[in-house]
Amino acid sequence: MCGIVAGVTERNIVPILLEGLKRLEYRGYDSAGVAVVDDSGLNRCRATGKVASLVDKVRQQQLQGRVGIAHTRWATHGAPSEKNAHPHTSSNQIAVVHNGIIENYLDIRQQLQKAGYEFSSDTDSEAVAHLIHQAFLHNGGDLRLAVQSAVSQLNGAFALAVFAVDCPDRIIATRHGSPMVVGLGIGEYFVASDSFALLPVTRRFVYLQEDDTVEITGDGWQIYDAQQQPVERECVENEQSADLIGKGRYKHFMQKEMFEQPEVVAQTLQGRIHHGMLQTQAFAPEFLKALAKVQQIDIIACGTSYHAGLVIKSHLERAGIRTNVEYASEYLYREVAVMPKTLFVSISQSGETADTLAALEKAKKLDYFDYLAVCNVPDSALVRASSHVLLTRAGREIGVASTKAFVTQLVALHILCLFIQQAQDKTINPALVQAFERLPSFCERMLALDERIAEVAKSLRDKSACLFLGRGEGFAIAAEGALKLKELSYIQAQAYPSGELKHGPLALVDDSMPVIALITHDHLAEKMMSNLQEVQARGGKIILFADSRVDKRALNAQTQLIDLGELEEMTASIAAVIPLQLFAYHVALLKGTDVDQPRNLAKSVTVE
Ligand code: F6R
Question: Which pLDDT score, from 0 to 100, does residue 217 have?
Fold first, then answer.
């Protein structure tokens, strides 16, 4: 989704800004732009499509300067086009880049139009540029005060970076509900919406807190809090590698990330489970003490992370912990009754998802017992805002469709479940713990099905809709399989608990409807098989991902089988998602869609 890079340097800042934008590309965007200010005034260059197109245009324009702002845009208000790309300007004096959404922009736009401002884009962001310009004129040319005055009139979520031609040595940046970090170089200072954009130029970062504003010049930086008082914020060293991650021998990042799953599962287990034993030193004593008291859990997440919550619900309930799993966007706008000793758990790959962050903020005002983030990005806003964190250790995930992050979320959540049981002195079958140590090799076995899955995927090449069926945890995994298929191949894929079929969806089934089913070797296998016979009786074409021990005699010859071998009960659903990921990947290859950056999607969803 949208990305910001900006800074004040002693050298030409344009290559730094362009490199920063390239590093933000994985987040998903549809246009990009850069603006610099120097003695000749404000110069801007914008382009639709990839950052490479912007780089060509910048070269032709010979854009240079020491102070600049840059942006990748993911369209919200107004189509992806050059006129809607950022930076937006006002009166050739103010330039602004904006992440987020201004909810009251129509009122502001009308008021500014009455005051004589002309708009050249369809965006909410341009209103911010004019509003800052208006405030800049009124307060005698103090850019920081102008930004703060403009921001006080905005509703919504935003991160902004701004410069003015009349004070060309500085950048003002601020945030409200959208992340922003200050990068501290040597004699040069930056801001960005993601520290990864700035790793080639600095390792030292200061995260802006909600409603902070920062002023950066060539001489230094100063943060002001919401009351506009100067404030100190902690500086942290980032230890991530600055290297841009390559695809290695793989065609796509998604393919690479799927094949990394055995390794990242092992990483997630490391130091937490060893020789069938839970390693208590993996967690802070106060976290373990909190787990001992937990009676209920509210899990909040979006998309794939939500599916991880659905999978773990039945395990937590089996351990006697009542569990509620909810989409963050739904949780946000309803009355919530919090029961005593309820732990709030947010799950997020990025730790930046606006809905999940907002849900955590709402939860903090309620009577929760404690707050845990299950997250993949250690320095993310979600981690910083939670009292406890369980890192999923998947490594950076570049493909927009989440794969390895999901599998590591499942492993981390199982670890959480086991630690709760141990902390509450409940009996844990050691065989269950040991099963996790064998999971990496089960993941390898699933990946070995790649060729067979590529073959079966051909039957979906010309389809526009299909159903996914599962039961229990298998339903949550089927839902994740359907999400992968729809986002990658743009095929309408709907998941149902198979028992629900006869309550409506069965009307969709005929000989043109593929029905993709997942059956693991458990107490639900026979029930699943009965539901598949209902599909078969109506001519439905079944693609079955099943444990080899499942009795398949009732299935007709048209059924295409992907034999998963013998999976272990405790980890079956974790392993079984991998063939469904591969299936979506191969259908997308056949359809010729953009696997790593599917249309309309973004890696980090930083707007509501
Ligand atoms: C789907 C996918 C999304 C994310 C969702 C939440 O493949 O990746 O559904 O799971 O946008 O993102 P995080 O986990 O970063 O909060």
Answer: 95
The reported pLDDT for the residue numbered 246 is 80
Q: Which two tokens stand for residue 417?
A: 């479940």
Kindly state the DSSP code that residue 239 receives in the 8-state scheme: -
Amino acid 68: pLDDT: 97
CB 424 within 8 A of CB 291: yes
Q: Is 349 in the pocket of ligand 1 (CB under 6 A)?
A: yes
Residue 353 alpha carbon, nearest atom of ligand 1: 16
Q: What structural domains and CATH numbers belong to the chain? A: 3-237 (3.60.20.10), 247-448 (3.40.50.10490), 450-600 (3.40.50.10490)
- β-strand pairing of 388-391 with 370-375: parallel
Task: Find out whether the beta carbon of 520 lies less than 6 Å from any atom of ligand 1.
Answer: no
CA distances from 346 to 272, 356, 419 (A): 20, 7, 17
Question: Residue 205: what pLDDT?
Answer: 95
pLDDT given for residue 600 in this prediction: 83
For ligand 1, the distance from its centroid to the CA atom of residue 596, given in whole angstroms, is 14
Q: Which residues of the chain have pLDDT under 50?
A: none
Which has the closest alpha carbon to 316: 235, 416, 234? Answer: 416
Q: What is the pLDDT of residue 458?
A: 97
- Tell whether ligand 1 has an atom less than 6 A from the beta carbon of residue 305: yes
Question: Is 359 near ligand 1, meaning CB less than 6 Å away?
Answer: no
The catalytic residues are 2, 603
CA of 400 to the centre of ligand 1 (A): 8
Pairing relationship of beta strands 230-231 and 220-224 according to DSSP bridges: antiparallel
> What is d(CA 150, CA 143) in angstroms, rounded to the nearest whole number?
10
Nearest CA to ligand 1 atom 3: 303
Rounded Cα–Cα distance for residues 255 and 266 (Å): 19
Helix (H) or strand (E) holding 559: none
The number of the ligand 1 atom at minimal distance from the alpha carbon of 401 is: 7
Q: Whose CA is nearest to atom 5 of ligand 1?
A: 303
